[in-house]
Amino acid sequence: MELQHLLSGFDFNKRQTIMSPPVKILGIAGSLRQQSFNRAALRAAQTNVPAGVILTTFELDDIPLFNQDKEKELPLAVAQMKQAIREADAILFATAEYNYSISGVLKNAIDWASRPFGESAWKGKPAAIMGASPGLFGSARAQYHLRQVLVGLGMPTVNQPEIMIGSASERFDANGVLTDEKTNALIGKLLTSLVTLTLQLKATTS
Ligand SMILES: Cc1cc2nc3c(=O)[nH]c(=O)nc-3n(C[C@H](O)[C@H](O)[C@H](O)COP(=O)(O)O)c2cc1C
């Protein structure tokens, strides 16, 4: 299908509804923490979606530790995660930074959904990355590690804008609402870039 036709159904400024089927984005946060800034960043993304986009989240709380002995008969939560990934048109990662890298929770989930060999749910799925940290760098180092992992998974990934939410405790309020307007606007731009990439890929494969 022509890219122009696919894009024509979308109003990134939310001025009109769309004729095209919605673009389904799955948000995954690399933290289990109740008050997680990264979970909060995904909630902020849900309030900034362009028209015609549905953003749901998959929580990693029930994903067990990866065990290659079990990859042929997946634990229920893992099977559900793989299904959610397969049903999504695109993935939005919100990564925490642990010791200059992504959290074990996120890497563990990524590993599960990449297996067994030849049955990865990630392959070809467009992705975007953002992240938050109370530190100054806003998970930048983790995001570059994640970007490298996504290369290995064969996931075309949005390059820009990069969203590193530093000093997170100053940008979210006590209820986990992203109050920083510039960051909200940037998340809107990231989602627009992700939708554009997703539609471009659809246009070249259909
Ligand atoms: C084990 C561990 C390692 C951490 N390492 C880093 C780090 O390298 N860089 C950083 O900016 N923050 C680091 N932090 C702080 C996290 O960014 C902070 O806990 C953040 O709130 C985690 O994301 P969340 O709010 O989504 O749970 C670390 C926290 C933990 C628990």
From TrEMBL:
Q: Which GO CC annotations does the UniProt entry carry?
A: cytosol
> What GO MF annotations does this protein's record show?
FMN binding; oxidoreductase activity
Show the Pfam families listed in the entry: FMN_red
Checking SUPFAM superfamilies in the record gives: Flavoproteins
| Residue span(s) of domain NADPH-dependent FMN reductase-like | 23-168
Tell me which PANTHER family the record gives: CHROMATE REDUCTASE (PTHR30543), NAD(P)H-DEPENDENT FMN REDUCTASE LOT6 (PTHR30543:SF21)
Report what the protein is called: NADPH-dependent FMN reductase
- The species is Georgfuchsia toluolica
